[in-house]
Specification:
heterodimer; A: 445 residues; six-stranded mixed sheet; B: 312 residues; mainly alpha; MetI-like fold
């Protein structure tokens, strides 16, 4: 009774699986109608949200402008997941042609052979060289005397302010800019003045459970002492206790519940400022679009220099060449062209808030008219990156360790000095560990 | 009798040759191996091989970046045993297990007793007590992140209602472990509840009937009939619960947004951090085997205790 049915079912299943297989294979075939000479370059990055939208518009432009190559972007989640996958792709020999990394992460990667170096001469032929970048940003691309990353931007930690509230509080000068403050006391006075005119807090600063946010403000303030934290390989961390405690104490003072909310997380702070309840916001420039979308009367400036030396905490999105065992020279040529094109077209990248690293862009008259970006463009000359070590940088465990060490201080009146000691001990533990990209420690820059 | 058996077998295996016993053996064996094959392949690929490979890795300085891989002897184990963060994570894991197992058993028992004896509309309670267990850890993490939100969260609103100071539940090192325990109890208590309820409903109703004839009240019945007969269920729940709590990772990692907090970092999270954040596969593997040793100790202790109970 069943055989005929049985047969037909089998036939059906066979036919169906063949059809499915064919469909799958068809999916693998390149579907674009581009000419056969067009090379597809794989480009990995970690930019999502507003940044992602701007990036994909930039890529569309670059793709449309020529037919020699086509960029195929792969977007992965920001932070640890991205770096883990990029490292594994490199280790497995299937790295993309070009990728974005935070400039601060390059140091940990260079020794393991995960990255290929950029040929400075080849870049120079395309109009990309030392003279077209602010000094500290170009220098950050080097490990030893070899260039490993080429910065697209600098994205500093800045101060946004609500112009209506600050005007009412009388802290704006005649140009509508925030009056300069040059000491912690002056800055605190200014904030208290602003607090009188704001319905919420004077300042919004989200930090709860977010080591990176705590670190960004802290290290900027620390560096304003004219100091940097040094993390020598195989040695002990060099941290100026007095400066560190001073910076952390100021943060504690800001979070007194009056000037800024004592318990604010990242999203809460953004929401408070975006809804016009607070006078100022300490944030990364990448939130610029959020504030513009909120139709807020606001401007932005660098975090005031409170300890004498202008210093702005920042990181850079940089182009890197993930290591390829048999790099195809013709494809590499196209990658160089792509990066040069991106840098030259990075004016639009500024719309996402970032400061383009390519000087011809920021020195153009059009950039001066780009407000408020132009008001913090000077930050590019004073950028301070994470201390150099294999374990530091954006999305690294280092910033998380800092958060774990100081969280309690910011939440209560616990002793800042003890927190700095905790942090130092943890950093020294990390310093004792080998760089996993070079466990035997044989690599020399 | 024999004829029936043979016919049944013929239907099951469907071959005429089954009438010859010798060939039946090898053919049946082949078929049974074929049915076992999918599991065996998965078992070898994803369980047996990783366990062996993990042991090998723990003796090397293999990195996720492909670098290293040289044999380093017991260096990773020596480092793990002197690593304060390793011990802290181990302590956090054990602390979480203690903090969560007790309420997960007591609350489940209370809920089961209420549903079994008292509350009307049993199906509704059964459903609502069990429902959270069906949610993915990502979902419960999101729910509780909102409840514990320091500014607009429900938890702080409740504190304010009672005139108490609001807390930074998940961020304050003094309260974050407790917050994770609360969320975990809410999430998984339903499973233990169901086990208890099933055990209670297995108790013959005649015993309660007889007891009430003897004049025993509801409390007396609970203490003298229900509780004593829940012993085996409690042992089962305890074992399952300890094993589940030792695995602490996903809800803690997600609720804290991946932040490494000294007071909540579990050993599983440290294994993850060593391997996938610091890229030290060899070291990460070594910590896993230290953790494995802890589980073996708990397992042996538990086996000894249950055996002694049986002998008694």
């Amino acid at each position: 009774m069943t055989p005929p049915l049985d047969m037909s079912r089998r036939q059906f299943l066979t036919a169906a699986s063949l059809a499915a297989g064919a469909a799958l294979l068809a999916g693998c075939a390149p579907g674009s109608p581009l000419s056969s000479r067009t090379e597809t370059l794989q480009f990995w990055h970690l930019l999502s949200g507003g940044d992602g939208v701007t990036m994909s518009a930039l890529l569309d432009e670059v793709n449309a402008a020529q037919s020699d190559y086509r960029i195929r972007p792969t977007v992965l989640a920001w932070g640890t997941p991205y770096y883990t996958k990029l490292a594994m792709a490199g280790a497995g020999g299937r790295a993309p042609d070009v990728a974005i990394m935070h400039a601060t992460r390059v140091n940990g990667w260079a020794p393991g052979g995960l990255l290929d170096t950029w040929d400075v001469d080849r870049l120079a032929e395309l109009g990309v060289d030392r003279s077209t970048f602010p000094g500290p940003i170009w220098e950050k691309g080097f490990v030893g005397d070899r260039l490993y990353s080429v910065a697209l931007d600098a994205h500093p930690f800045v101060l946004m302010f609500n112009t209506d509230i600050c005007d009412a509080a009388g802290v704006l000068d005649s140009d509508g800019k925030l009056q300069q403050t040059s000491s912690p006391e002056e800055f605190l006075d200014q904030l208290r003045q602003v607090g009188g005119s704001a319905s919420g807090h004077a300042l919004s600063y989200g930090y709860l459970g977010d080591g990176a946010q705590m670190w960004r403000l802290f290290y900027g303030l620390y560096a304003q002492h004219g100091l940097e934290i040094e993390l020598p390989v195989g040695g002990k961390a060099v941290i100026d206790k007095d400066a560190a405690v001073e910076a952390l104490t100021l943060m504690q003072t800001l979070l007194d519940g009056e000037i800024a909310a004592a318990r604010a997380d990242y999203g809460g702070a953004i929401a408070e400022f975006a809804t016009g309840k607070s006078g100022m916001l300490m944030t990364g420039v990448w939130e610029l679009r959020t504030m513009q979308a909120a139709n807020l009367p606001f401007d932005a400036t660098t975090i005031p220099t409170l300890y004498g030396t202008p210093a702005v905490y920042a990181d850079s999105h940089s182009f890197v060449l993930p290591h390829q065992a048999n790099a195809d020279d013709a494809r590499r040529d196209l990658v160089y062209r792509f990066v040069a094109e991106m840098l030259k077209g990075s004016f639009d990248w500024a719309e996402a808030g970032h400061i383009p690293a390519y000087l011809p862009v920021t020195s153009s008259p059009a950039y001066d008219d780009l407000v408020p970006q132009a008001h913090y463009a000077s930050a590019a000359d004073n950028v301070v990156y994470d201390p150099t070590a294999w374990f530091t940088g954006s999305g690294s465990s280092f910033q998380g360790e800092f958060g774990a060490a100081v969280q309690n201080v910011l939440l209560s009146d616990a002793d800042p000095a003890a927190a700095i000691d905790r942090f130092e001990a943890r950093v020294n533990t990390l310093l004792r560990q080998p760089n996993p990209a070079d466990p035997e420690g044989t690599w020399k820059p | 009798m024999t004829a029936t058996a043979t016919t049944t077998r013929a239907i099951v295996t469907g071959g005429a040759s089954d009438f010859r016993p010798r060939r039946t053996g090898s053919r049946e064996q082949l078929i049974s191996w074929a049915f076992l094959a999918p599991f065996l392949i998965a078992f070898v690929l994803f369980l047996a091989w990783p366990i062996i490979h993990g042991i090998y890795l723990s003796f090397t300085d293999q990195s996720l970046t492909g670098a290293g891989g040289g044999f380093v002897g017991f260096a990773n184990y020596a480092e793990a045993l002197t690593d304060p963060i390793m011990w802290q994570s181990m302590g956090n894991t054990v602390w979480f297990t203690l903090l969560s197992t007790v309420p997960l058993i007591v609350v489940a028992l209370l809920m089961a007793a209420l549903v079994d004896r008292g509350l009307p509309g049993q199906w509704l309670w059964r459903l609502s007590f069990f429902m959270p267990y069906l949610l993915a850890s990502t979902v419960i993490s999101q729910i509780w992140v909102w409840i514990f939100n320091p500014q607009i969260g429900a938890a702080n609103n409740i504190l304010k209602f009672f005139g108490l100071e609001p807390l930074a539940w998940l961020q304050n090192p003094e309260t974050n472990m407790l917050s994770i325990v609360i969320a975990t109890v809410w999430w998984t208590v339903g499973f233990n509840f169901l086990l208890y309820l099933a055990a209670m409903q297995n108790i013959p109703p005649q015993q309660y009937e007889a007891a009430s004839l003897d004049g025993a009240g509801a409390w007396r019945q609970f203490w003298s009939i229900t509780l004593p007969q829940l012993g085996p269920a409690t042992v089962l729940i305890l074992i399952l619960q300890i094993l589940a709590s030792l695995k602490l990772f996903d809800q803690a990692y997600q609720m804290l947004g991946g932040v490494a907090s000294d007071t909540t970092r579990s050993i599983v999270q440290y294994i993850y951090e060593a391997g996938f954040v610091s890229y030290r596969f060899g070291y990460s593997a070594a910590i896993s085997y230290v953790f494995f040793a802890l589980i073996v100790i708990i397992g042996v202790a538990q086996a000894l205790i249950t055996r002694r109970k049986k002998e008694q």
